[in-house]
Amino acid sequence: MNLSGAPVRGNAAIYMLALLYAMVIGFSFMFTKLALRYADPFDMLAYRFALSFAVLALLVRAGWIRVPKAPPGGRRWALLLVSLVYPTAFFAFQSVGLDASTTSGAGIFSATAPIFALLLGALLLKERANLLQLLSVLVSVGGLAFMTGVSADALRGTGVFGGAMILTSAASLALYGVLARSLRTSYTAAQLSYAMMRTACLFFVALALVRHLVQGTMPALLAPLAEPGFWLPLLYIAFLSSVVSSWLSNFALARLEAFKVSLFVNLGNLVSIASGVLLMGDPWSGAQTIGSACMLAGVIGANYRGKRPRMDGKGEYAGPESSLAVGSSGTFSSGNPFAFSRSGPRRP
Fold this sequence. Notes:
mainly alpha; globular; disordered N terminus
């Protein structure tokens, strides 16, 4: 992929970015676990998004990232709704759900996000999946559920409330994908990411301050800052897992259906498991091998395009656009991937 101005043809570029997105969020689980050694979940979210928005605002201020002003009369209510759904509602429901469920149970319920995305995409965007894509989603979801269920006590220890919260977080992730995709012609990836980080920062910082003020535990809120081991995982989840991954997902959603992007989120779980095995000494089982194969097969099957579309009489593809120009035609401008504009190739 070349961001310097030369066009990149074919769908390889967008899938490389989606794969990078899966890798970033996959490693975020490990770094989040490290950060949670020093801060409780909601305090960690407050620090995460406060730093995320601070870094993003500084980059915008310095001119390194261009966030165009929203046009007058734009769909600002929809932009606010997207940022309330993700990351705000997603992480809030996930944090509450994880507190009332086992890790394996949470993994099984979280795996349903592509199914929600498939249903919501069909309902709200009129997106239709073919039989291979439907089967691929089921195989991917089933692979993750099998891997987490067989490797532990499955749903034992996960209450109805905890399961409902995790399901709601999965639905929030799917709804975000559909809403962000619906706004792909109204707002840039940078605009979406900026709004998402700002809303999450305001919500979780206010929540942390009010909670600790009411409980009289303000020193506990500030205590993680004195821990040297807190800063490295915080920097990763604040910048890479929040700022960079939000842009990657918003960019991918401008080109791919919501359920396909959700499958890459599930693929991130595979990256998370692999990082635990390679870097933290976690065990690897036969169930994980089977589940991983199913997840990979599901992602490949859902994104399989079959034969290339035929050219029409004007030398253009008669079917959906299958090329992606990066660095030319305005898809990225000024060599800056965050300066995402709408003058690029047609979207599928």
